[in-house]
User: Which sequence fits this backbone?
């Protein structure tokens, strides 16, 4: 196992709770990016995201990152029509009533990241394995993995939503990167569980010559039919926030809210060309700066 992978595995379990946030992020950035973290002043996208972790801690961010509480935030900002229909919510892993759940559903831990179970067919689901996985997620606090403050005080709960059906079985999610309330680019992931590829698009749906973590998908990709509506929703949800990633789905001509993320890729990922990371850094106006 690489040194960073070992460090991250320990951090995720809270092994470095004794370390201050600033010192932790400097060490994590050094191990991941192989260079020093500049915080005075930060310049790149990744550096500015680390700065925001430390110094931009608004109470509303906890609500926005909480996958249950965020539903009220979204309903107030853009309307309930953008919410995926809720089936049930639970406070403990052992409370999940598998027999009462429908054949297809999406289960997620409200306090976590990538803590999801997309069930296409309950008859084929390994329920004991799923129960064990959920129990582990419910014990974890995602804050410790990379000091993303919005996660720190989210109540540990479970949300079950309707499984969104689409022509591709699981609908494609569109990750819209917003800066001070303005969308700048859109991330689309392909074949995430097989041969993961990723493209960046501008607001006119022109593919950007950017590689971030995964290679580019080479095929032609039509824009979502509801692109302008998606951008409008992203603007409304990201208003007043220096940087926010708004994840949306499009199914049967309707837009649905997925989640909001403040620190794409923990702010630790590399970009090629490197100039794009500086360009994105320029899009972030830190609190106190003029947007």
Assistant:
């Amino acid at each position: 196992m690489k040194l960073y992978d070992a460090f991250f595995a320990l951090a995720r379990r809270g092994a470095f709770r004794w370390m201050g946030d600033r010192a932790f992020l400097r060490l994590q950035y050094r191990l991941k990016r192989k260079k020093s973290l500049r915080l005075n002043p930060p310049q790149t996208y990744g550096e500015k995201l680390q700065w925001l972790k430390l110094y931009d801690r608004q109470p509303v961010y906890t609500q926005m990152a909480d996958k249950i509480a965020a539903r009220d935030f979204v309903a107030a900002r853009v309307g309930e029509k953008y919410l995926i229909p809720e089936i049930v919510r639970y406070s403990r892993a052992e409370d999940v009533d598998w027999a009462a759940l429908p054949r297809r559903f999406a289960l997620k831990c409200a306090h976590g990241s990538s803590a999801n179970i997309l069930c296409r067919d309950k008859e084929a689901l390994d329920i004991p394995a799923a129960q064990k996985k959920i129990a582990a997620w419910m014990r974890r606090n995602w804050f410790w993995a990379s000091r993303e403050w919005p996660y720190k005080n989210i109540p540990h709960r479970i949300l079950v939503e309707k499984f969104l059906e689409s022509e591709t079985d699981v609908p494609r999610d569109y990750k819209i990167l917003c800066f001070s309330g303005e969308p700048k680019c859109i991330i689309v992931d392909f074949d995430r569980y097989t041969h993961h590829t990723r493209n960046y698009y501008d607001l006119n749906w022109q593919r950007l010559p950017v590689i971030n973590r995964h290679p580019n998908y080479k095929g032609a990709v039509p824009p979502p039919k509801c692109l302008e509506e998606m951008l409008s929703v992203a603007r409304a949800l990201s208003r007043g926030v220096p940087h926010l990633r708004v994840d949306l789905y499009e199914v049967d001509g309707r837009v649905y809210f997925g989640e909001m993320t403040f620190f794409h890729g923990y702010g630790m990922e590399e970009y090629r060309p490197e100039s794009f990371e500086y360009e994105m850094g320029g899009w972030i106006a830190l609190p106190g700066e003029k947007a």
